[in-house]
Write a structure and sequence with these properties.
Blueprint (H helix, E strand, L loop, with lengths): L1 E4 L6 E5 L2 E5 L7 E3 L6 E3 L17 E4 L9 H6 L5 E4 L1 H9 L5 E3 L5 E4 L3 E6 L11 E6 L5 E4 L17 E5 L2 E4 L2 E4 L2 H10 L4 E5 L9 H6 E4 L2 H11 L5 E2 L6 E3 L12
Parallel strand pairs: 3-6, 6-7, 7-8, 12-13, 13-16, 16-18
Antiparallel strand pairs: 1-2, 1-19, 2-3, 4-5, 9-10, 10-11, 11-12, 14-15, 14-17
């Protein structure tokens, strides 16, 4: 399995089992909420590693939520409508309204197998997220590599994630909106990684987390910094286990080594 960070926020490309997944792609323009971004505007600080014209018709766009930071309408409008879209129910409804013809709804607890080699399972996040948002368990059925992609707040325990995952991709800066927690911080992520015996913890949802406009100026708070993330993961998980990838940087995840059985 290959994981590539596409931008300085939370867009990722995952290659596995002959499939290419684009998770929450934000490839063009800004993220805007309200007329002209009056309520919220987020801008990329670094170039994006993928352009809409490079998205192939056999790629799969995965949308974890219908919120603008995940289902980015200008990006979706720039894509070929033959691209398959898979995701949370409200996000798929949005994609259908934009003219995408091949869509798959993924709900919490549901498992979808693609071409017999890749499985995606919806994971329900913690409060305040429900049916409107999903995390993803991405499994290679060929070699058993498992990645848990959580855009918001992971459940404290989940039987589908245990006993282990290989990679966790999650926010590492706590985000609060009017006091309600919207994303995890590094300590929560490290505890999750230790519990699930993860080999890598990759940071997402970082640089443009606050943005501009009324919401970030009055209601949104971002806590924690990336230096803390790297220091804490190095101390608790080991050197190289926690990574902040640059846009375009790739991690290749081999299967876990199995202990050889002693000869009879």
């Amino acid at each position: 399995m290959e994981l590539e960070r596409l931008d300085d926020y939370q867009s990722w490309r995952i290659r596995c089992g002959g499939q290419q997944l684009l998770i929450d792609p934000w490839l063009v323009d800004d993220i805007e909420v309200g007329d002209g971004g009056r309520w919220l505007r987020r801008r990329h600080g670094l170039p994006v590693a993928l352009r809409p014209g490079q998205v192939g018709e056999h790629d799969i766009v995965v949308l974890t939520s219908a919120l603008p930071a995940h289902a980015h309408v200008p990006t979706l409008r720039a894509l070929n409508r033959s691209v398959r879209v898979l995701g949370a129910p409200a996000a798929v409804r949005l994609a259908r309204s934009l003219g995408f013809r091949s869509t798959i709804v993924l709900t919490p607890g549901q498992r979808i197998v693609l071409d017999g080699r890749l499985a995606l399972t919806g994971i329900r996040p913690r409060f305040p997220y429900g049916m409107g948002s999903i995390g993803l368990l991405i499994e290679s059925l060929e070699d058993g590599v498992r990645t848990y992609f959580e855009p918001h707040v992971a459940p404290l325990r989940h039987p589908l994630l245990e006993p282990a995952v290989d990679v966790i991709v999650a926010p590492v800066q706590k985000v609060r909106l009017a006091g309600v927690q919207l994303a995890m911080d590094v300590n929560e992520c490290v505890q999750l990684a230790r519990h699930l015996k993860a080999r890598w913890l990759l940071a997402t949802g970082t640089t443009p987390a606050a943005g501009e406009g009324f919401i970030p100026e009055r209601l949104l708070r971002v806590e924690g910094d990336l230096d803390t993330f790297e220091a804490v993961t190095r101390l608790q998980l080991g050197d190289g286990r926690g990574r902040l990838l640059a846009p375009g940087e790739i991690i290749r995840v081999p299967p876990r080594r199995r202990r050889s059985r002693p000869a009879a």
